[in-house]
Amino acid sequence: MTHPRYTGNVLVVDDTPQNVQLLTRILRSEGHTIQTALSGMDAIDTAHEVIPDVVLLDIQMPEMDGYEVCEYFKANETLMHIPIIFISALTDTEGIIKALHAGGVDYVTKPFNIQEVVARVNSQMVVVEQRREIDRLHEQDIQHYHAIDDMKNEFIRMATHDLKNPLGIVMGYAEIFEHIQIQDERQRALMDQGLDAIQHAIDKMMNLVTDMLDLAKMGTNVGLQLETMELVPVVSRWVEAHRVRADEKEQWLNFTSDHEEFTVEMDPRSFERVVDNLVSNAIKYTPEGGRIDVSIEQGEDCAIIKVADNGYGIPTDSLGSIFNAFYRVPLEEHRQAEGTGLGLSIVKTIVEQHDGRIYVESQLGKGSTFFVILPIL
Ligand code: ADP
To answer: How many whole angstroms from 290 Cα to the centroid of ligand 1?
Structure first.
């Protein structure tokens, strides 16, 4: 196997200047950058100034020999990972063994064989690069875990907050009802009002818990139960289920399709949530008397389901976030509508599980159109 060639910074340490010059010439012609040192102490100083990728280190040097330099490197936190290739006399077998014990990764012998020196340095450069790649991946993993941890904390914070309020309402009214004795109309009205508030709070908690469970279930990627089916009749039925709610807000709700037949593979139970969420959002985020148009159009090998409204719209800087779990547009009219911020992230997951795509176009104050692209058979 041929390795990709990596070049780097080589520190050549030898007390014989001719050897240093020769090694410098050989390695430079390979594209490496060279630093040199003529003694052990010099090597240590140079390595601290610019940390080398690989060290070529002579064993026999006066004052501080190669073993001592190697020991220093291995005990120093900054230098300990640098691979050291020892330079030894061909006949010094014992010295070579000692060098490898001292922490050397390889050796070259004098007199130098150019190809051998090049091959040994280059192979250590590959190791250096691989270690860097591992460090990079490790760093990415750490960041990934931090992101997941942040998301988990945010999830817990939001869920606790969103459950606490309605629970407080239920508990508050339960307390009142414990002591109330209905004697007159005023107390009956108070009771009814309380029961409404409890019902509302329970609905809210139910929605949040259902959404969270759905989202958690999707994370485990439970398989879809795919069926071959016609899109138009089912979507028409799912849209129709929202008529009452649209009528309450005196909104015009319309469904059209430019073709009768769009045969798709879908899990109808999970895909119903897509249409359901998009249409109920359109109703929720459109004022009274607005208009919601759902249509299915033919695309290239796909069906395009459009859910368009002329409601509040979404500000441009929110468009990138609305498919994120828990994100809600931070505008008063959006906040007034009940919501968990989980619907669209569930929708997106389901659409992608069906090999589809979803995106939105929107203008603040004018309305929004959600596009779901679904492959057809
Ligand atoms: P929610 O439970 O808050 O409705 P979603 O995930 O379904 O959560 O939607 C996220 C946010 O995107 C909503 O809070 C709302 O601000 C915005 N949004 C979704 N659909 C529409 C729409 N049709 N028009 C305007 N804003 C919308």
So the answer is: 16
